[in-house]
Specification:
By secondary structure, this protein is an alpha+beta fold. The protein has helices at 15-36, 110-156, 162-198, 265-268; strands at 41-42, 44-47, 49-65, 68-72, 77-79, 89-90, 96-102, 221-224, 229-234, 240-242, 247-252, 257-264, 276-285, 291-301, 306-309, 315-326, 340-357, 362-364, 367-374, 377-388, 392-397, 404-407, 419-420. Strand 15 and strand 16 form a beta hairpin. Helix 2 (110-156) runs antiparallel to helix 3 (162-198).
Length: 422
């Protein structure tokens, strides 16, 4: 035992002098531990839920009048100033769209006169052919209407499916449009016949005797609209001399619009006639302030593709797809010829599937994966995918409803890394 009064004994250390350095050492060790601990990475997340998945192919397109007619100078002469402007209404066979003063005809020989007469006979034959086709279209329209009525009756009695009824109604509409086109063709043929008859001039030599009175100038030739509609474009407004065949103005019926868009060929192979489509007008809003969406149906995919250079200078193979408006006609009244629209064609649809945002997916080898936020850490999970859209994909395995996935994961995120969810 050490004597406390012994001067040679070592100094006695108090408990305070021992505890204070130990506390500093523990604090330093804890600080170093916190310094080297990985900090939670802030991430954006989304919750997996069930819903509908609609696959579409989208492209910017334009509207155009289905039946567009360009009235041109029938013979060489002088065009009188036209009173019409773009947007004016015209009536088939009544509205005079332009007056054309023919140049005094030169002396015609027998051959030229025979050619004029042959042109008139050819125009008469064209009228007869158009009338025969109109009669055929009338018969087909009557048969389609009767078949549609029969299928509607069977569907009401439960003896025909909804698909049969839709096909019958579509055939009825197609036959009715065919009859309308055949009627327009008859009007155009009659108009061409009038032009052929107007080009006929006498072949006799003019009377050159000194007492002969000068021949009166020929009356102006009145060009009338072949269809009901509006003036789409005026090529020549002022009076001027024109060569035969020079365009004067375009007319068409704005109620007969169609939609045309150039799709990539790899997207076009998924499209079939009859598929539904939606049309969005740039800048147009409905009563609720949402983008105005109109309904349409794919009519045809043109058989020939073409090469088009994109804005980035890449050559692309594209093909034109034509869609027809559907729904109330009043919804389409604000559209005209050549308007820009966004055409979205529905190529697939799935009901009540597990949807995962595309922004949460990334490639891991040959498979797809995502990060799931669980207990403050990111867990990498392999995902089996089905249908995909630009915004969501169908999760067939690996995820469950209610899972919280990390959106747009960065390269700093790894399996098991701590994350901070807002």
């Amino acid at each position: 035992m050490v004597d406390p009064n012994d001067p040679l004994a070592p100094p006695r250390r108090s408990a305070r002098s021992v505890a204070l350095p130990a506390a500093f050492a523990l604090a330093a060790a804890y600080g170093l531990y916190l310094l080297w601990q990985p900090r939670p990475l802030p991430v954006d997340v989304a919750t997996i839920a069930r819903g509908d998945l609609v696959q579409t192919v989208d492209e910017v397109g334009r509207t155009r009048v289905r039946d567009r007619y360009t009235l041109s100078a029938p013979i060489e002469g002088r065009l009188l100033r036209t009173p019409l402007r773009a947007g004016d209404r015209v009536v088939a066979g009544q509205t005079v769209v332009a007056e054309f003063a023919a140049r005094p005809a030169p002396l015609l020989d027998a051959r030229t006169q025979a050619e004029r007469e042959a042109a008139i006979r050819r125009a008469d034959a064209a009228v007869a052919t158009a009338e025969a086709r109109r009669s055929q279209a009338q018969a087909e329209a009557n048969a389609a209407a009767a078949e549609s009525q029969r299928v509607l009756t069977l569907h009401a009695e439960g003896l025909a499916s909804a698909a049969d009824r839709e096909h019958a109604e579509r055939d009825d509409r197609v036959a009715a449009e065919g009859l309308r086109a055949a009627t327009f063709a008859v009007q155009v043929a009659e108009h061409e016949r009038e032009l052929a008859r107007a080009s006929r001039v006498p072949s006799a030599l003019p009377d050159e005797s000194p007492h002969a009175e000068p021949a009166p100038p020929p009356a102006p030739l009145a060009l009338r609209s072949p269809v009901d509609g509006v003036v789409l474009r005026v090529h020549e407004e002022s009076a001027r001399a024109l060569a035969a065949g020079a365009p004067i103005l375009d007319v068409g019926d704005l109620r007969q619009l169609e939609l045309v868009a150039d799709f990539l060929t790899q997207d076009a192979v998924r499209v079939r006639p009859g598929m539904p489509a939606t049309v969005e007008r740039s800048g147009a809003l409905d009563a609720q302030g949402q983008a105005l969406r109109l309904q349409a149906t794919v009519q045809r995919i043109e058989p020939g593709g073409f090469t088009k250079v994109s804005a980035l200078g890449v050559e692309e193979q594209r093909v034109a797809i034509v869609a027809a408006p559907s729904g109330p006609a009043a919804d389409w009244q604000a559209l005209g010829d050549g308007y820009r629209v966004e055409l979205r064609i529905v190529v697939g649809e799935a009901k009540d599937v597990l949807r995962v945002p595309v922004g949460a997916l990334f490639r891991r080898g040959d498979a797809w994966a995502t990060f799931v936020a669980r207990d403050g850490r990111a867990r990498e999970v392999a995902v089996q995918l089905g249908r995909t859209t630009p915004s969501h994909a169908e999760a067939l395995g690996g995820l469950a409803a209610g899972d919280v996935v990390v959106l747009y994961p960065s390269e700093l995120l790894a399996d098991g890394a701590p994350v901070r969810v807002p």
